[in-house]
Write a structure and sequence with these properties.
Number of helices: 3
Strand content: over 45%
Shape: globular
Radius of gyration: 25 Å
CATH architecture: Beta Barrel
CATH class: Mainly Beta
Distance between the termini: 58 Å
Number of strands: 22
CATH topology: Porin
Helix content: under 10%
Structural class: mainly beta
Order of helices and strands: HHEEEEEEEEEEEEEEEEEEEEEHE
Length: 469
Amino acid sequence: MTRLLLPRHVTALFCLTWSALGLADEAACPERPGYANVRYDEDWRFLSNRRCASDPWDGAKYIDLGHGRALSLGGELRLRWERFDNPGFGRDRQDRDGYGLARGLFHGQLYWNDRLSFFGQLESSEVSGRRAGPRANDRNALDVNQLFVQWTPYRSADDQIALRFGRQEVELGASQFTSAREGLNDRLSFDGVRLTGEVEGWRLHAMAARVVPTRRGAFDDNSSPDETLSGFFVARSHDLLPGGNGVVFANRRTRPVSFYADGTAREERISIATRWWSSGTDTWDYNWETGVQRGSLGAGSIRAWFVSLDNGYTLPDHELRPRLGLRFNIGSGDSRRGDDVVGTFSPLFAATAYSGLSGLVGPSNSMALAPSLRLQPNERHAVTAGVIGFWRQSTNDGTYNIFSEVQRMPGSSEARHVGTQSTLMYVYTPTPHVTMVFVAAYFQAGRFLHETPPGENVVYLTGWWAYRF
């Protein structure tokens, strides 16, 4: 009888041991990261444990080269349709059937060792069917969007300092001043050096870089010393507010030519600001920024300022996870033309979020009040509805696009109301690889646009399908 039971005991012990090893391997696998907006933020080296592989692309996300080296590959294809009814409020050419936009990205990251890595990314973007031709950021045949080396001279259990040299995208904070401009067809990058790190709870960043302009040919996107961005920030978590974080930052931007209602000339602009925001809270969220800008436009000076308040409340324990949001922005305008003092605020390299994907109005010389409601029952579906009212901060200044370029001169109008935009956006993420976005917006022109014609109402429609790996 003992002889018959012994094999069963051995089999049971073997099964328990194998199950324990499987649970240990599963516990060693971290939660899978998502595909980041800035792809060098991803780290797939946990796939060195082959038991963590669960996606068909995992073989490309971690390629073991031996000797402690590894290669990670990835990319994106985005196909988009866009249509404006009365573009430019009736000033620009009409595309009755809309037009197509396409963008492809491919990148590779080489981990040489624990302290040294290399990252490269190619980009190609195209536009088809737009009667007025490509806009400044619509077409780029093929070019190097990113190519840099990262060296980490210091790393401990909690802290590290890294240096990055070369061409790279930059996303800072809430993208109020610096972003990769995901909403545009061609993304933005910089040539230069950056320092990032965290030491004893302090988060640090410094950079000195040249702007890489979009040119339509192949491998012709070359930066110049005439258009630059440099600066630093120091950030830290705090207990003064729920989930509190605070940062103080300063940057300097130069442009060979800038276009404002008060003049066109070479620009040097210094921005000094602070941002306070929340993280890790389930109900209230907030993002508050304020700052001043100083500098010169030709022989004149710059004296500008801004305030941005974005607050939200998510109803707890509700199956639709509704978030009620309220955003209020003021970007100063020029108070008197011809006095050699430019008061127009510039968002530098901000994202398109100020007026949604339509980008009809930028934050320069603008006041905006934007209530919104977002419903997100799960990670696959999100619906956001909102209304934005736009007013001029100064009646002596015009309206601007997201690039701080004047679009409508003030003329003789004393009206402040520029218009009101209603927007509905649906984001569908059926798999971690696929994202589908649909946006419909209606901009009702206000008194200022009617008094500086054309002032037609605008209907904006867009949708895209994007695949990432």
